[in-house]
Amino acid sequence: MNNLPGRPRPPAWAPIVSIVVALFYGVSPVDLIPEVIPLFGLLDDALVVPTFLLLGIVWWARRKRAQRDDRRAAIEIAAKAD
Description:
Strand content: under 5%
Number of strands: 0
Number of domains: 1
Number of helices: 2
Largest sheet: none
Helix content: 55-70%
């Protein structure tokens, strides 16, 4: 189901990289918009970190779902072969 052209699987490393980037960006002193700019400096942290965390979680869940679907399909194929 997840192998459809419109919905490709994310690479195995994508969820890990996304979560690591979110955590690193959250604790890093380097920002896209510096904190000296009022409101916008904090706003980029408030948007970038949750976005990358959510992206990593969604990609991880999608990969787990695809693995589960593949496992079920393999069991069904093996059952039909018997």
